[in-house]
Amino acid sequence: MKYIILLFSLWFILSCENKGKPVGDYTSYGKELTADNAMTQEEMMRMYQSMHVGDTIPVKFKSEIKEVCQMKGCWVKLALDPKTKTMVKFGENDDFLIPRDVAGREAIVEGRAFIKEVSVEEQKHYAEDAEKTSEEIAAITEPNTAYHFIANGILLK
């Protein structure tokens, strides 16, 4: 019985590892993607600006990673312009994770872009994941509308 528990524990630990697969100059996580036909961040920003809450558009775009979830690597924020970012989650239920040390790297994501009303609680949760200061977290007092993205896969350069 001890061996069964030990083998199960070992299998579980190994299955939690999220190693990316090499794809050209990139490493792929989640659904395997190609780098071709990705929109630029500027094109993606224009697309978001034409959307409304409730709209969903399938798309692939390239941008720089500005923030990464420091708890698990379950989300990133990608630049759309110098002041604007989109929140990218990996699948509906954190279906895959990425390394937590990838801020500043180029990424290509493929999935669904949408605009979402974000509650104060959810904003504070993401701020904690990003290891924001207690002052920054306390300053979150109102819901906001934000650009969101559910990625099926991501390529990291």
Walkthrough of the structure:
The structure is a single chain. The chain has 157 residues and is α+β, with helices and mostly antiparallel strands. The chain has a single domain (20-156), classed as OB fold (Dihydrolipoamide Acetyltransferase, E2P) (Beta Barrel). 25% of the residues lie in helices and 37% in strands. It has helices at residues 2-16, 41-49, 120-129, 134-138, and strands at 21-23, 26-30, 56-68, 75-79, 85-90, 106-118, 144-156. The protein has a 5-stranded mixed barrel with strand order 3-4-5-7-6. A hairpin with a 2-residue loop joins β1 and β2.
What keyword list fits this structure?
OB fold (Dihydrolipoamide Acetyltransferase, E2P), globular, five-stranded mixed beta barrel, alpha+beta, about 160 residues, single chain, 4 helices
Lay out the secondary structure.
Elements: H1 2-16, E1 21-23, E2 26-30, H2 41-49, E3 56-68, E4 75-79, E5 85-90, E6 106-118, H3 120-129, H4 134-138, E7 144-156
Parallel strand pairs: 5-7
Antiparallel strand pairs: 1-2, 2-7, 3-4, 3-6, 4-5, 6-7
